Amino acid sequence: MQQEIHLSKHDLHILGALFDPELSLSTSAPVDASKPALPHLDEDEFASIRAEEQMILKLLHGSSQTADTIDRAIQQLTGLITRSPGFAPAYFNRAQARRLFVTDDNLFTEEFTEQSRFVFADLQSTITLATPLSPQASLSIHQQSLLASVHAHRGLLLMKAVQRAENGFEVYGLPDELCKPDKDSIEDAASRDFFFGGRYGDKDAQQMSVKTNPYAKMCGAIVKQAMRQEIEEGMEKV
Q1: Residue 65 maps to a domain
Q2: Residue 211's pLDDT is what?
């Protein structure tokens, strides 16, 4: 008699991700265009803070972008955050401003450990402030755009850390929550960020989520092994 096998919801999710890694991307975060830009700010307050932020960001545009102007923008964004600590976009823009000080070659080096940590801390603050308490809660258009960008940005930074580890270099300045700074753990963290970036609407993050999905890679390895075995068996028959 054939034994009936019962799979848990978790098992079914794993199998679904294994054989159809894009399946998990089909559910987008719900968006409500009528909601205020940020849930804890009324529209007038948001517009006022946003206007101040845009004036600061002008320092980072065009030919006037020097080390002094970048530093001044960071200091002014810090002042804005001190006055309005719940304004999530300011943390994201401060992280991007700090990135201007760190080239890709210097990112995650020992010399720039502190700068890397500052960047990740600001990205995490953005996510914490902008993410709704419930996964089923609807987002404003501004929340959706901000969360898509910040998750995609952090995912790309983590993939740069993966590349550094693959090249045999020590990786410095990773976020504290990444308790195992090995290549696989870093790539898994990047994959999670790409998943959320894709869920919030970033198309590039969606594609990266599929490419870095551990179940998709497992499936690819299984298929490659099966093809290799089939080829070897075919050669033996010749």
Answers
A1: yes
A2: 76
